[in-house]
Amino acid sequence: MGDFLLVGVHDDQAARRGRGAAYPVLALQERALGVMACRHVDDVIVGAPGEVTRDLIATFDVQTVVAEREDENRTTGDEFQDASRLLDDAPAGPTRETDDETRSMSHAGSRDPNGLAKTLGLFREVPRLSSHGASGADGLTSSEIVRRVAAARAAYEARNARKNLSEARYYEQKSNRTIELARET
After folding, report:
1. Whole-angstrom Cα distance, residue 153 to residue 142?
2. Cβ pair 8, 18 in contact under 8 A
3. Region for residue 148 given its phi and psi (left: phi exceeds 0; alpha: psi -120 to 50; beta: otherwise)
4. Selection from 147, 158, 171 nearest residue 74 by Cα
5. Do the Cβ atoms of 104 and 115 come closer than 8 Å?
6. Residues 21-27: contacts with CB under 8 Å, at least 24 apart
């Protein structure tokens, strides 16, 4: 598809607007460093815009815009909102690209962040790779990471609640002198 890979990393506010309050899991700098550490990535746009624009295409001489195929089984809800909502709060105004922008609107009336690239024939969609390198939806995603963090947090809180209860019982028994205290000999 090309010989130079430029990856855009959205800022924290855009990630929260598009995916919900539980996002991002990592701060912008951590995400950018993680992407830059990938051996196939040549450069990173930190704070990338929410949609591909003519200015972005011209500035970086973009020949192909690549996005992962959307997972039809993707979980929906506040924390997993569609990325097209990134632009909901963007100010509207006249631009030179009015015709292209109109064509980039999806059937539901929300903006398609790759609409211009699709209109210009620059867009390519790739399948999601699983953790085993094969196509499929069982790969590690940000949604899966959030699910794992939430599960670990719930287990941590339950364990600490049990420990706190046990500790409270101990101190109650100690203050009532109903427990035998260890004595130094």
Report:
1. 16
2. no
3. alpha
4. 147
5. yes
6. 21/78, 21/79, 22/79, 22/146, 23/79, 23/142, 23/146, 24/142, 25/142, 25/145, 25/146, 25/149
Contact residues for 145 (Cβ-Cβ < 8 A; gap 6+): 25
Tokens 């339950």, located at residue: 158
Q: Hey, what amino acid is at 135?
A: S
Summarize pLDDT for 99-112 with one digit per residue, the tens: 343 334 433 446 78
| Residue 102, SS3 per DSSP | helix
Instruction: For residue 136, give every residue at least 6 positions away whose Cβ sits within 8 Å of its Cβ, in sequence order, or none.
Output: 127, 128, 129, 130
Contacts of 157 (CB under 8 A, 6+ apart): none
Q: How far is CA 116 from the centre of its chain?
A: 22
Which of 129, 50, 128, 124 has the alpha carbon at shortest distance from 83?
50
For residue 46, list its beta bridge partners. Answer: 9
**Is the full-model pTM beyond 0.85?**
no
DSSP code of 87? G
pLDDT tens for residues 41-74? 999 999 998 889 999 999 999 999 998 876 554 4
Structure tokens at 36: 């830059």
